């Protein structure tokens, strides 16, 4: 069975409470439930994780090799700073989709740079929690094409 990993970075555990005017009222647990339902409907295996530390996210990317077929990553603020996460994604050579709830390009300049985008298939941002479904669809379509 094709399997994907959805990785969530720092502060995303606070979704629903954190700046609801930017990130909405939906919690990460609710997003996980919606992702599980969607992945099941598509016949995909799914692992859904969140961690606040860069090293733990890197370890999860390394562990995905040989287990998952692709990664959806909302790296939070590490998107804009982490060469190490970019290198981890390059190292495992798994197709990755970069994801953000907010439209980072309509926000502060420092959010316009992404290290993840340099090694991602593409980027989905600005569609709130629905972006997770869009990212799963994009990755699933890519994986179907590469069968
Ligand atoms: C975010 C956007 C990032 O700039 C920010 O640091 C986050 C969340 C998003 O999903 O919109 O933590 O990744």
Please tell me about this protein's structure.
- The protein has 147 residues and is an alpha/beta fold.
- It has a single domain (3-146), classed as Rossmann fold (3-Layer(aba) Sandwich).
- Helix content is 38%, strand content 18%.
- The chain is built from 5 helices and 5 strands; from the N terminus they run E-H-H-E-H-E-H-E-E-H.
- The protein has helices at residues 20-23, 28-42, 54-64, 83-92, 130-145, and strands at residues 3-8, 45-50, 70-74, 96-100, 122-125.
- A 5-stranded parallel sheet has the order 2-1-3-4-5, with helices on both faces.
- The longest helix is centred in the last third of the chain and has 16 residues, at 130-145.
- It is globular and about 40 Å long.
- The relative contact order is 0.20.
- The model has no long low-confidence stretch (mean pLDDT 97).
- Bound molecules: 1,3,4-trihydroxy-5-OXO-cyclohexanecarboxylic acid.
- 1,3,4-trihydroxy-5-OXO-cyclohexanecarboxylic acid binds at residues 11, 74, 76-77, 79, 100-102, 104, 111.
- The site of 1,3,4-trihydroxy-5-OXO-cyclohexanecarboxylic acid has 10 residues, from loops.
Write a concise keyword list for the protein shown above:
147 residues, alpha/beta, Rossmann fold, 5 strands, binds 1,3,4-trihydroxy-5-OXO-cyclohexanecarboxylic acid
Which CATH class applies here? Alpha Beta
Contiguous helical run count:
5
What's the shape?
globular
Which architecture name does CATH use? 3-Layer(aba) Sandwich
Distance between the termini: 12 Å
CA-based gyration radius: 14 Å
Helix content: 25-40%
SS strand fraction: 15-25%
Look up the CATH topology.
Rossmann fold
- Count of distinct strands: 5
Specify the CATH homologous superfamily.
Dehydroquinase, class II
Give the names of the bound compounds.
Answer: 1,3,4-trihydroxy-5-OXO-cyclohexanecarboxylic acid
- Domain count: the total is 1
Mean pLDDT: 97
Low-confidence stretches: none
């Amino acid at each position: 069975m094709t399997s994907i990993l959805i990785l969530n970075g720092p502060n995303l555990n606070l979704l629903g409470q954190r700046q609801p005017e930017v990130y909405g009222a939906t919690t990460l647990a609710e997003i996980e439930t919606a992702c599980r339902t969607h992945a099941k409907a598509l016949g995909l295996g799914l692992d859904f994780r969140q961690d606040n530390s860069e090293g733990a996210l890197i370890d999860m990317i390394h562990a995905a090799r040989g287990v998952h077929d692709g990664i959806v990553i909302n790296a939070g603020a590490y998107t804009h700073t982490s060469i190490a996460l970019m290198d981890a994604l390059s190292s495992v050579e798994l197709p990755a989709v970069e994801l953000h709830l907010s439209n980072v390009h309509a926000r502060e300049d420092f959010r316009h740079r992404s290290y993840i985008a340099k090694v991602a298939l593409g980027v989905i941002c600005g569609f709130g929690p629905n972006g997770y479904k869009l990212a799963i669809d994009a990755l699933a379509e890519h994986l179907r094409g590469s069968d």
